[in-house]
Amino acid sequence: MSTGFDDKWQRTAIHWAVLGGLILMAPAARAQVTPERLRCEHLTDPLGIDVTEPRLSWQLASRPQERGQRQTAWRILAASSRESLEQDEGDLWDSGKIDSEQSILVPYGGTSLPSRQRCWWKVMAWDAEGRPGPWSAPAFWEMALLSSRDWQAQWIAGSAEEASPPPLEPAPMFRREFQVARPVRRARAYVTGLGYFELSLNGRKVGDHELDPVKSRYDRRVYYLTFDITDDLRTGDNAVGVMLGTGWFNMHTKAVWGFGQAPWRARPRLLCQIEIEYDDGQVQRVVSDSSWKVSSGPVVFDGIRNGETYDARREQPGWDRPRYDDTAWKSAAEVSGPGGVLSAQMLPPIRATRILKPKSVRVVQPGVWVYDFDQNLAGKLQLSVTAPAGTKISLKQGERLHPDGTVQQKEIARFIKSGALQTDTYICQGQGLEVWEPRFVYHGFQYVEVRGLPEAPALDLLRAKVLHTDFASAGSFSCSQELFNRIQ
Questions:
Q1: What is the pLDDT of residue 1?
Q2: Which of 304, 286, 289 is nearest to 196 (CA)?
Q3: CA 80 to chain centre
């Protein structure tokens, strides 16, 4: 026999038990793993992939309280448009459910991909209990030029005359004007310049890379880059400009590595193909050939280990903009390439990842100042100076000091056998504040010896830009010992 109180208590107990069960059961019914950080050939949303079956990877995320979770199956969708992918239509590839724990370097298994094809993709994973999770956020990759037949551009140089060894000349500047007739759907620049190149469109540098392309055995392989230049173009007049440095391609310094005797050594040369796709599907190409113009400019000397000399009085303002008067420029010469297979550069670019201020500056001799950046680094300097025209400022860089406080380069001299070592030179234009940094060199240094200034400098005369291949950080370290933190 029950009372009303007992019935009420029992109903309340059942209510809370059911509610508690729901609370406990809800997480178990919900998906546990979600794919994140999708990558193609180790890269995030890469342009310019020339692997015909690119490998796909992802990481799994689960709720913090879920320990020991794992993937038991996956499904990949790949589509030719983002719209199709968002509608769960894999017109390029639908892998179906694949019972596998593999989440690293899964080969693409869909329709054969032609040059320039953009492929949108996403992935779903099943957890340890066999429950499917949600689709990942979409990612993409884009195919590069897969065949030599895709290239209509010609290698060009400042002169067709070949000499051995090649002559040391100012860094060549190439330019070409072209018209964009109507709104652009997308545009790409496929380009390489040996040893190094800097690409600009309508007066602005394209991208934030440094020291492209990566070095190689140029007679076996030459790397080129793919840039999305859709937003750099404008309807009407446009101009492309490229400046070249010697880099490792024409290393003219005697060094222990023997690059000075390399069989590929030649004048710097350029290969550039711009492809503009309009909304109606028509494609316009602007390719390097003898119609391009070439001239020398303010970089009068560059050596990867020696340094760069820049004479600001030789600048040609507007040279990479439309409607520049280039009647005094020569026609570029069509030349042969170094012989290596053209390959897409598929790795994170070199970037300036930090800018360091000097810790101190002190005078060590009359007219000689030494800056201390308080740590060794690989990178380059940025100079900010106001001085009369023709003022020649030298920046000698090294990792140690002589007893008298000047920069010591003994360790560097063991590897570089001729020429100046890690010394950049700037010759002032004499028109207010001048800000400059070298384009085609990098140095290892902590100290900078400055000569040639007309008066004692301020601490902000120099900044140091740290350069390295810009890999994503995989972790961090810190501890109670500041020395270890500084080493890290």
A1: 43
A2: 304
A3: 26
H-run or E-run covering 65:
none
225's CB contacts (< 8 A; 6+ apart) are 48, 190, 191, 192, 209, 212, 213, 344, 345
- Could you give the strand order of the β-sheet that contains 196-201, starting from the edge strand earlier in sequence? 204-205, 196-201, 236-245, 172-180, 293-296, 330-331
The residue to which tokens 């012989």 are assigned: 339
Provide the mean pLDDT of the chain.
91
In contact, 225 and 271? CB cutoff 8 Å: no
CA distance 194 to 216: 11
Kindly report the backbone phi and psi dihedral angles of residue 197, in degrees, each rounded to the nearest multiple of 5, phi listed first.
-140, 155
Whole-prediction pTM value? 0.89
HSE, side-chain direction, 13 A CA sphere, residue 253 = 24
Q: For 335-388, write each residue's pLDDT tens digit.
A: 999 999 999 999 999 999 999 999 999 999 999 999 999 999 999 999 999 999
Q: How far apart are alpha carbons 236 and 184 in whole angstroms?
A: 11
